[in-house]
UniProtKB/TrEMBL annotation, chain A:
GO molecular function: 2 iron, 2 sulfur cluster binding; metal ion binding; monooxygenase activity; nitrite reductase [NAD(P)H] activity; oxidoreductase activity, acting on paired donors, with incorporation or reduction of molecular oxygen
GO biological process, alphabetically ordered: nitrate assimilation
Domain Rieske: 5-108
NCBIfam families: nirD_assim_sml
PANTHER family: NITRITE REDUCTASE (NADH) SMALL SUBUNIT, PTHR40562
Name under which the protein is recorded: Nitrite reductase
Keyword presence, Disulfide bond: no
Protein's UniProt keywords contain Iron-sulfur: yes
InterPro entries for this protein: NirD, Rieske-like_NirD, Rieske_2Fe-2S, Rieske_2Fe-2S_sf
Record keywords: 2Fe-2S, Iron, Iron-sulfur, Metal-binding, Nitrate assimilation, Oxidoreductase
Automatic annotation (TrEMBL), chain B:
GO molecular function: 2 iron, 2 sulfur cluster binding; 4 iron, 4 sulfur cluster binding; flavin adenine dinucleotide binding; heme binding; metal ion binding; NADP binding; nitrite reductase activity; sulfite reductase (ferredoxin) activity
Ranges of residues in domain Nitrite/sulphite reductase 4Fe-4S: 636-775
Biological processes, Gene Ontology terms: nitrate assimilation
Binding site for [4Fe-4S] cluster: C645, C651, C685, C689
Residue span(s) of domain Nitrite/Sulfite reductase ferredoxin-like: 564-625
Organism: Actinotalea ferrariae CF5-4
Keyword Oxidoreductase in annotation: yes
The protein's name in its UniProt record: assimilatory sulfite reductase (ferredoxin)
Amino acid sequence: MTRWTAVCALADLDPERGVTALVEGHQVAVFRLADDRVLAVQQKDPYSGANVLSRGIVGSAGDVATVTSPMYKQVWSLESGTCLDPGGKPAHDLVVFPARVDDGRVLVAAP
Amino acid sequence: MSPSSPGRIVVVGAGMVAHRFADQLRSRSAEGDWRLTVIGDEPLLPYDRVHLSDLFTGKDAAALALEPSVWADPRITLVTGERVERLDRDARTVTTATGRVEPYDTLVLATGSWAWTPRTEGTDLPGVFSYRTVADVVAVQEWAATRAAELGRPLTGVVVGGGVLGLEAAAALQGLGATTTVVEFADRLMNVQLDDGGGEALRVLVTANGVEVRTAAAAVRLGAADDGAVATMDLSTGATVPADVVVFSTGIRPRDRLARESGLAIGERGGVVVGRTCRTSDPAVWAIGECASFEGECVGLVAPGNLMADVVASQLFGGPRTYTPAPEGTRLKGAGVEAASFGDVFGLTPGALEVTLADPVARTYRKIVVSDDARTLLGGVFVGDASLYASLRPLLGRPLGADPSAFLAPEGGAPAPGGDVPDDVVVCSCANVSAGSVRAAVTEHGCTTVGEVKACTKAGTVCGSCVPLLTKIVTATLEDAGITVSRAMCEHFAMPRAELFALVREGGLRTFSEVVAAHGTGRGCVICKPVVASILSSLGAGHVLEPEHAALQDTNDHVLANLQKDGTYSVVPRVPGGEITPEKLLVIAQVAQEFGLYTRITGAQRIGMFGARIDQLPAIWRRLVDAGMESGQAYGKSLRAVKSCVGSAWCRFGVQDSVGMGVRLELRYRGLRAPHKFKVGVSGCARECAEARGKDVGVIATEKGWNVYVGGNGGFTPRHAELLAEDLDDDRLVQVVDRFLAHYIQTADRLQRTAPWVADYPGGIEELRRVLVEDALGIGAQLDALVADHVDGYADEWRSTLEDPDKLRRFQAFVNAPGEHDPDLAYTAERGQARPARPGETAHHDPVVARTLEIVP
Ligand SMILES: Cc1cc2nc3c(=O)[nH]c(=O)nc-3n(C[C@H](O)[C@H](O)[C@H](O)COP(=O)(O)OP(=O)(O)OC[C@H]3O[C@@H](n4cnc5c(N)ncnc54)[C@H](O)[C@@H]3O)c2cc1C
C-alpha cells in the first residue's frame, strides 16, 4: 500500500520548473510539466553529489519529458529516471518517486 | 648523415621569410636528420613587418611576433641580436660580430633588404628616419613625442617617397599628430602601380585626408635648427618646406654584402642570383626572400619570399617544388585610402582594351584591362573602392566571364566572381594558398568555418584582403559537398541562433510557447531554452523571472546567482568602475561574516561572496539592496564588469577619465543579455593598465579621445582585440560600442564569444568598421535602438525580485518544510574561511562555525 505525502498545491508549482520536497527523509525533486502532469525523481545529482536536480531545466527529448542537471548538464527521462545523455561519463539513472495530483494537491510517495 | 640529408642548416637573417622557412621545415619533416639555426641581427623574435604600421595604432612590438611556437621545436635554435659578418664557403662556416662561428652543411640566406636613402645633404641629422624595422618605428615615435614637447607645438612631418610604404608612413606621421607632406619624384603617387588616372584620383583622396602632396619634386637638402635637429627641406622645385621629422621611403635594396664578399654570383641590380630551385651559384647555399634575385629581379613583397621558403624546404628533402613567380598585385594599406592594382596596369599588351569608370562624386577611379577580344582579364586599377581587387585579381589571365563594364557598374552589375573560381587559382597570395587547397581544407580536413580554414591553410592570415573571396569559396564548397553542417541548434529548433533571433524579432514573439509553436517542436531543452530566454531579454520582452520566462532559465538566471559545486551560490554585487565606498564595504563585510560566506576579490574588480544557500539569497540581497547595491549579473550571459584603471583623476599618466567612462559603460550595458558573457575594459592611457585589449570591448584613451578595440579574449584562447575606431569623443564612443554589441547580439551564434564572431565576420574587421562606424548598410539606427530600449527598460533584477512575493517563493529550500535547509552541506576551514569539505575532512554544516574549526593536519 503506497503511502502518499501531500507536499504542496499544484498552484504552488510553476509550469516546467521543479521544487524540492522532503518525503519520509528523502530529498525529492518534484516537477510540473506544461500539460500539468507532475513527476518526481531524486534531488541528488549523481554526478556532483549536490542536491540540485529540482533546479534543472525541464524539456523534452522526442516525446519523453526530461530534466537536465544544472551542474554538469547530464539529461534524464523524468518518466523512467533513465540517463539519456551522460555527457561522456558512465550513465547513472535516477530513482523515480511516484507522484500524482489529487484535487489540486500534489502527492509524492517513497518508492 | 645520409648524402641527401640537409644536416646542419643555418639561416642568415631572421625575418618573415626565415620564419616561414623554419615553419615549413618543421611541419614538412616530422622526423629527419637535420638541425636548424636561424641568426638574425634584430633583437626581437621574427615579426610581421607587413603590419609594422600597427605599432602606431597602439599595438606593441611583442604582438607583431610571428607564430612563436616554431622556436620551441628542439631541433631549431634562434639567435637574435647578432649580425653575421662573414661567410666562409670553403670552411662552410658563418661568423657573427660577437665571434660566434656556426658551421653549416646547408646555408640559406634570408637577409631581406635595407631601406635605401638618396645621398642628400642632411640625411644624418637627428629627426631623419627610414621605415623598415620595429626599431625605426620606435625611434620615430619617440622623436615625435620629445620633439613636440621641446618645440611646444604640433610637428610638421615630411615623407620622401610617394609609394605604398611612403603613404603608409605619411598616415602614421599624421597619427602622431604631425601635419604631413609627401614629396614624390615622379609625377604621381604610386607611380609604379597606378596609371595617370589612378594616381590623380589617389592624390585627391590623400589630400582630402589632410596630407599635402608634392609630386615632381625631390629633396635636395635638409637644413638644421639651432639645436642641430632637422628643421627644413629644400626641394628641387625651389621651395623650402618645414620639416621637424623626416621619413625616407625611397625604395629598398637587397642585403647581399655577405654573398658579394664571399664571391657568390650577384645580379646586375643587386641580390643573390638564384634559379628555380632557389640555389645560388654555390650548391650548398640557397637564397630566399627579398635578398634573392630571380631572372634579374628582387621582389619587395612577402608572398614570393614565402613561396621561395617553401621551395627550399621541399628541395632540401629531395622534393620537386620549384619557384615560378606568380603575378603579384599591390594594395595600399594603412593609409586610410583604398588603392590597388594588378597585372597590366598600363594596358601595354598589344591590342589590350581598357574599360575605365572614373566617378568624381564618389571619388573612385576603376579600370579593367582585357585582351583584344574583351574576354581575358589582363589587369586592373582600383582607387577609392578596391572591393573588386580581391575578387578579380585571382582571375588574371583567365576569362572574365562577363562584360568588363558590368563589373564597374555602380549597382546591379555582374556579380563579382565567387565560390566557383578554378582550383589552381591562388586565392591568398600572401600565404600562397589556391582555391583547391581551400576546398580541400573543407572536404578533406573537415573544416566547416572560415576560421577553421584560416587556421588550417593560413589563407587570409597575412593581409586579409582575400577573406571575402575565401568566405565565398568555403560556403560554396560546404554546399556543393553536401556537407550539411547541421545548423540546427538542437532537436527543437532547426536554425542557428542568429536566424531565430531575426524570426523572433520580426514576429514580435514574446514567450517560449509562441516561439516554439511558430518555429520549433517539443518543449525545448537546456540548449534552446536559455537561448530563447536571452533573445527575449535582449528584445526587451520583460523580466527574466516573469513566469513564462522563468522556466527557460538556467538555475543561475533563475535565482540570480552563480551555482557552485556543492549546490550553493555566489553573490556578487555590481561595483561600477571598481569604485566602492567604505560604507558599502562595511555592509559587504557584515553580510559575509554573518552568513559565513567565503569572500574574495574577483578577477573583474568586484567582491564575490561564496556559499550562500538558495534559501539565504533573498535575505542577503535585501541587505545589499538596502545599502544601495544591485545585482552584478555575475551569473548571466551578459555584461560582467567594466574593468578600468584609475585614470586621469588620480594617475600621473592618465590622459582621460577612465573610471568615469568605465562607470558610464557599465551602467549602460548592465543586464544586457547576449549570446555569451562579455567584458569591457577602459584604460586611461596607452600604458593599458586595464588590459582592455584582452576584453570583448577594449577602450583606450588617446590625447584626442578614445580608441576602441573589439573581439579580445583572455581565458582559454587568448586573443588581442582589434582596432575598430580611433579618437572618438565620449558620445561617439558609446555609439560605436552600442552598435558593436547590438550587432553581435543579433547575429552571433549560441555561446559564441565576440572573439570568434569577429574572427569569422565576413570581410573581417574592415567590413565590421564599414558596417558599424560608417554605417554602410544603413542598420545603425536599428542597432542604436536595441541598446536604447535596453537602457530605458533596465531595472535591477534583485530589487524587483525582492518586491514580488510570488518570485520569492522559488527561494525555499523545501516546498513542504519552511525553515529547513539542505542537511548535506558541510564545510571545513582553510586560511581562515569556509570551503566545501571533502569526504573525511573535519567539517560542520554551518560555515560560520566551520571557518573557526581547528584543522589538525
Ligand atoms: C612598412 C612596411 C609595409 C609592408 N607592407 C607589405 C605588404 O603590404 N605586402 C607585402 O607583401 N609586403 C609588404 N612589406 C614587405 C615585406 O615586409 C617584406 O617583403 C618581407 O618582410 C620580406 O621578408 P624577408 O625575410 O625577405 O626580409 P626581412 O623581413 O627584412 O628579414 C630579413 C632579416 O634579416 C636580417 N639580416 C639581414 N642581414 C643580416 C645579417 N648579416 N646577419 C643577421 N641578420 C641579418 C634583417 O635585419 C632582417 O631582420 C612591407 C614592408 C614594410 C617595411
